[in-house]
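Late entry, evening session. Most of the bench is empty. Finally got around to the prediction I had been postponing all week. Sequence below, unchanged from the version circulated by S.P.
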Amino acid sequence: MPSNIPEGMAYLHYHNLPTMKKWLLLIAIIAIFSIARAQDLQTLAQERVDGKETPGIIIGVYDHGKIHYYAAGFADVATKQPVTSTTLFEIGSITKTFTTTLLALDVEMKTLSLEDPIQKYLPETVKVPTRDNKVITFLDLATAHSGLPRMPSNFAPGSNDDPYIDYTADKMFSFLSQYTLPRNIGEQYEYSNFGMGLLGVTLAREHKSTYRELVTSNLLKPLKMNNTWLNMPNQHHAHVATGYAGSTPVHAWTWSDESSMQSAGGLLSTAEDMMKYAIANLEPSSKPLGKAMVQAHRARSSTTRETTKIGLGWHITGETVWHNGGTGGFRSFLGFSPGSKKAIVILTNSTAGADDIGFHWLDDKQPLKKLRKPIVLPDDVMQAYPGNYQISLPSITVTLKDGQLYGQMTGQPAFELYAESKDHFYLTAVDAQIEFTRNDAGEVIGLILHQGGNDIKATRTK
């Protein structure tokens, strides 16, 4: 319509059309918006790769009953293997929603109750902490209100490359039996990998099974998620993406049946399989599994954010039900809106996620994050930055190789520093920025690390 027609006139003009023409006009408008949104998603995906946020990304959406995928970048930078909808990614903490759905299914089948104390299902030698005569229940674990910490104090990986594989149930029970709760049970939300690991172990014990067998038989097989599984040692899959921290490849996390934290973040999956899971949650069946999913989505308690509630594992912000995940070299997001019947899955093989795209696509009032764009500085400017910069005990070593600046803190890998202006650089491996400082003569004499709301100054020592 001409841009000079007021909205009210457009409304009257539409309602004067014959019925068939109204339908044709609506179909045309929907098609135009769908094409525009598709172009937007492909553009957004490519921008994340071009902006060095991630080597690769796949976005899957379900809208008006149709599925579309938008991919950009590489699953493996060295081999130039492209990302596709069948590329396998570590989905991290989205695994928690599988675990809480298993719990909801048990409740639906009346195998147990959300109010049951978990002590009832654990060995007598294990002492689950209590406080003020209150006990930790399945509901407390599933809503992150148990009072248990994010991670246990006896978590000491044999290898940082594969941190969770050797944290067994015996270690979990040992920590649990000696832990003193810092607050009343149910009083406060505290996101807990340990608590969700404990939930998975308890459910597996109740079924006299392993978590792997439990999630496979009750969720993955019924939903035909044939390309989703726990990444076990010595498995080799052709379509597994390589995870990255910056440009540094990261060792894939693996799990055994003895790994007690697998239910908190152990699954590998593809965009296609995750879309099956998203649609099953968005349009649940009348079968027990569908009813369990509905129960898992129901808001049950508060979180640390005023606008967000928690169900059984799932977070609920407005009309959006969601969860995200992160491992050593991957990030994931799954969200859906029952009101609009839309769902989105986003998988990246980097430590930079794209949750904002998911929230924005489901609710356009949610903003997209502002992407930093790297610029190329002259060689003589870049040559001024390499050196050692002392904070207190740790130091930051800045090096220049093939025109790329790197920063490396003591005991950590080197990460790329991308210039956004002279003396101002940013990292993509973590949310941090570095600002180089100069003296009156224009010489670089230090830097300021901006991270997590802190401004940490370092003095150049050489």
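Two things to note before I forget:
Residues 379-460 form a domain with the Lipocalin fold (CATH 2.40.128.50).
Residues 80 and 184 are 52 Å apart (CA to CA).
Will write this up properly tomorrow.
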